[in-house]
Design brief:
single chain, 68 residues, mainly alpha, 2 strands, 9% strand
Length: 68
């Protein structure tokens, strides 16, 4: 068994310990999980937007400078 297979098995065990269930083709939040209301992707999107704002903060007003 490869290392990646062992990691996948460990990840599945951890998700199940946390109360997640696999239904169809997606993992479902535990019924009592308040985070189920807010998708996880919003955390990633928020982080990207904050970084973009921080990058642009140093640009002069009206600048066309593109920060990537």
């Amino acid at each position: 068994m490869s290392t990646i297979d062992k990691q996948r098995i460990a990840a599945i065990r951890k998700l199940e310990q946390l109360g997640y269930t696999f239904a169809g083709d997606d993992w479902m939040h535990p019924a009592n999980d308040a985070a189920a209301i807010t998708p996880t992707i919003t955390d990633e999107l928020h982080a990207m937007l904050v970084k973009r704002a921080d990058d642009l903060e140093g640009c002069p007003a009206g600048s066309t400078k593109s920060v990537s």
